[in-house]
Write a structure and sequence with these properties.
Number of domains of chain B: 2
Structural class of chain B: alpha/beta
Subunit structure (chain B): Component of the GSE complex.
Radius of gyration of chain B: 20 Å
Pfam family, one (chain B): Gtr1_RagA
Shape of chain A: globular
Order of helices and strands of chain B: EHEEHHEHEHEHHEEHHEEEH
CATH class of the largest domain in chain A: Alpha Beta
CATH superfamily of the largest domain in chain A: P-loop containing nucleotide triphosphate hydrolases
Protein name (chain B): GTP-binding protein
CATH topology of the largest domain in chain B: Rossmann fold
CATH class of the largest domain in chain B: Alpha Beta
Distance between the termini of chain A: 17 Å
GO cellular component, one term (chain B): fungal-type vacuole membrane
Strand content of chain A: 15-25%
CATH architecture of the largest domain in chain B: 3-Layer(aba) Sandwich
Function (chain B): GTPase involved in activation of the TORC1 signaling pathway, which promotes growth and represses autophagy in nutrient-rich conditions.
Number of strands of chain B: 11
Radius of gyration of chain A: 23 Å
Bound molecules: guanosine-5'-triphosphate, guanosine-5'-diphosphate, magnesium ion
Oligomer: heterodimer
């Protein structure tokens, strides 16, 4: 696997190249997705003068190269074959020669260096245009790139190019980057299987495995993704992320107790136990299946505390409930469930989550061992 | 019970924008499409049960202002509960703004001498750094212009939670006996082993009352609950941030034709339930004791509903 290489921290990272003319929005994309920069703040970003390599750890470790606008194949300083993906960012209003020539130049070079590299074009700042113009410009950019490639040589007809409409001001960027990411996760089919099993057993019409901080989805079940549902999940995750620290207490004894010894690592033999429960006898409790957390840590293990949340989206039946369960320190399962199922069969849902979590943790472990050469 | 709220200020200062955010749940990004308000746009907003806010959004172009101060004078300024005057931090014509503002104060003194006055230094997101210095300077300038009348000044922006802080406190002054609600929330918090309980109005998600009335901790009258809360040193902007977060999520839900109904969370640092309390309110219960389950909190909320329906009715009758 030529496109994965050992980086400074001893981890084999999958490399993504982020290209495009000056002011196209490359740094904005990187910062909004991986550094939690509010979209409005991208206005203050300074022009990138040198290549900046950003690492990001999710289900697989990534290294994203944010390049200055004037970079060329020669000045990149690394062979193109090292990269698993090339993302070319083009401003949707740029229908001119220059950005398209640059894009074609890189496509040709990338295709020659590694025909398997995924080539992605982000037609960016899409929110700036009205729907009709948006579609028209998108189509024109697509067409011009294809024509130019064909002009160079007929063999380029077979180059697989993926075009996406993106903007930092909505979730189109998250959706597009998620799709880019899916091609890089070798274990995707296994994750999808686990999600399918979860959905089937929980009567869930849709479930996503999200990276919590970037709000990219790593995998989803087999049912089609509709953008509206995806957006809702993204917004929900954003709200939970913000709530997470909002009511944090400074009083140490109020926090969930931290384990004093390092927890045992996740093992495949663990049973879906919820750990010891301790409920205040003085307060009314009663619904089956709500887990009482007893410990928290950054390393997941079976008896540890995993944050969860749910929101009901309609007061009356049938109604939908949107659930959130942390699966690993970075990943969370978001699922749509019929409210009747969530309320009536909570124990079953919790059981399915535990089963799902064990599966994902096992897969992550395998990925990790492969990456560290362990 | 109707309360008249005047929303005044120069054209373009942001009055209609804030109204559409707080009362219509529109996102900030859509406000750019608003046109200038022609004359007065009146809105009746059922706030809490029988409390109806009668919101007068007064278009701020000079011609309208002049007419408010002359021919429409009594119509505009009589029976006012609260006047909110909005100043654009970037305003190019501060002298003219202040002149109109003083004239409005006169009108108010003449027809509604009891009315509370709130001044919003708006579009704070555009202010130069350091923003707090810019704000303090503006605040002093406005207080001076207000003469001896008591005014409350807030810095606001539609792009962050500051708008909710200002409006929560404005609305708070319109709810008679909010302190009774507060006292019962304190009792309810104790019953739930909660660190804090917050009551929100249902549609605006403005804060109506909390279990922790704002008394400086140094005062001798501080209760045990308050000192317990102090120990947690919770984020001072948590109420308005919560309003903002929930409002944003409600908007997301409406975009997919769903309706936000309730939320429960068991996170690393706390457990919380946000659920309907009465027909017009939502309650947020925050617990830091890890042994308390959300199911218990939900049960307690269900049991407290009747009491709060009654209380809410009472607090408005008096
Ligand atoms: N940057 C920034 N812009 C704002 C803010 N609030 C409102 N605006 C913008 O200010 C412009 C004018 O807002 P309006 O709400 O129509 O102003 P108005 O006070 O109702 O004006 P009149 O109806 O003519 O009196 C809009 O383009 C808003 O998007 C804010 O907090 N920050
Ligand atoms: N309208 C709009 N502006 C964007 C978007 N993404 C980035 N920008 C703006 O484009 C400008 C250039 O962005 P930057 O990330 O520095 O571009 P780079 O040179 O390619 O890294 C900044 O002013 C951003 O605010 C977008 O999706 N929509
Ligand atoms: Mg207006």
């Amino acid at each position: 696997n030529g496109h994965k290489s050992l980086s400074g921290d001893g981890v084999t990272r999958t490399k993504i190249l982020l290209l495009g003319l000056r002011r196209a929005g490359k740094t904005s994309i990187q910062q909004v997705l991986f550094n939690n920069l509010p979209p409005k703040q991208t206005f203050y970003l300074e022009t990138t003068m040198r290549i900046v390599k950003h690492t990001f750890d999710t289900v697989i470790p990534l290294e994203i190269w944010d390049c200055p606008g004037n970079i060329t194949v020669e000045t990149l300083g690394a062979p193109l074959s090292q990269f698993a993906t090339m993302i070319f960012v083009i401003d949707i209003r740029d229908l001119y020669n220059q950005p398209i020539s640059k894009l074609v130049e890189f496509i040709v070079a990338a295709y020659q260096a590694n025909p398997d590299m995924s080539l992605e074009v982000f037609v960016h700042k899409a929110e700036k245009l009205q729907e009709d113009d948006k579609i028209e410009n998108f189509r024109q950019i697509h067409e011009r790139v294809s024509d130019r490639l064909l002009d160079i040589a007929p063999e380029y007809e077979q180059v697989q190019l993926n075009f996406h409409l993106t903007s930092v001001y909505d979730h189109s960027l998250h959706e597009a980057f998620s799709k880019v990411l899916h091609k890089l996760v070798d274990s995707l089919p296994y994750l999808e299987d686990l999600l399918n099993v979860f959905c089937a057993n929980s009567q869930s019409p849709k479930a996503f495995l999200f990276d919590t901080t970037s709000r990219l989805y790593i995998a989803t079940d087999a049912s089609p993704v509709d953008s509206a549902t995806f957006n809702l999940c993204c917004d929900y995750l954003q709200m939970l992320n913000s709530f997470g620290t909002l009511y944090k207490s400074a009083a140490a004894d109020a926090r969930r107790p931290l384990p004093t010894t390092p927890p045992p690592s996740a093992s495949s033999t663990s049973s879906p136990s919820r750990g010891p429960t301790a409920s205040d006898p003085g307060t009314p409790t009663g619904t089956e299946g709500t887990s009482t957390p007893n410990a928290t840590t950054l390393r997941p293990s079976r008896d540890l505390f995993y944050p969860s949340a749910s929101t009901s989206l309609h007061p009356s039946t049938p109604g939908t409930t949107l659930t959130y369960h942390l699966i690993t320190p970075q990943l969370a399962l978001l699922a749509l469930l019929p409210t009747s199922v969530y309320e009536g069969r909570r124990g079953l849902i919790e059981f399915n989550v535990v089963f799902f979590r064990e599966g994902v943790q096992e897969i992550s472990q395998v990925e990790k061992e492969a990456r560290t050469g362990g | 019970m109707k309360k008249k709220v005047l929303l005044m200020g120069a054209s373009g200062s942001g009055k209609t924008s804030m109204r559409s955010l707080i009362f219509s749940n529109n996102p900030a990004s859509l406000t750019a499409r608003l046109g200038a308000t022609i004359d007065v746009e009146q809105n009746h907003v059922r706030f809490l049960g029988d409390l109806i806010l009668n919101l007068w959004d007064c278009g701020g172009q000079d011609a309208f202002m002049d007419s408010y101060l002359t021919t429409q004078r009594s119509t505009i300024f009589q029976h006012v509960g609260v006047m909110i005057y909005v100043f654009d931090i970037e305003s190019q014509g501060m002298n003219k703004d202040l002149e109109y503002y003083r004239d409005c104060l006169e009108g108010l003194k003449q027809y509604s001498p009891e009315a509370a006055v709130f001044l919003l230094v708006h579009k704070m997101d555009l202010a130069r750094e350091p923003k707090n210095v810019v704000f303090e300077k503006k605040k002093r300038e406005l207080e001076e212009a207000s003469g001896e009348g008591a005014v409350t000044v807030f810095g606001t922006s539609i792009y962050d939670e500051s708008l909710y802080k200002a409006w929560s406190s404005i609305v708070h002054t319109l709810i008679p006996n909010a302190s009774v609600l507060s006292r019962h929330l304190t009792t309810f918090a104790a019953a739930c082993s909660a660190t804090e309980v917050v009551l929100f109005e249902r549609t605006t998600f403005l804060v109506i009352a909390t279990s922790s009335p704002v008394t400086p901790p140094s005062l001798p009258g501080a209760t045990a609950e308050q000192t317990d809360l102090d120990r947690h040193e919770l984020n001072p902007t948590r109420y308005e941030r919560t309003s903002e977060l929930v409002k944003a999520f409600k908007h997301s839900c409406s975009r997919v034709r769903e309706e936000f109904h309730s939320l429960e969370m068991e996170l690393y640092d706390f457990t919380a339930v946000l659920d309907e309390m009465t027909r017009n309110t939502y309650v947020l219960v925050i617990v830091h004791d890890p042994t308390i389950e959300t199911a218990a909190l939900k049960l307690n909320i269900r049991m407290a509903r009747r009491k709060f329906e009654e209380l809410q009715g009472d607090s408005l009758l008096s």
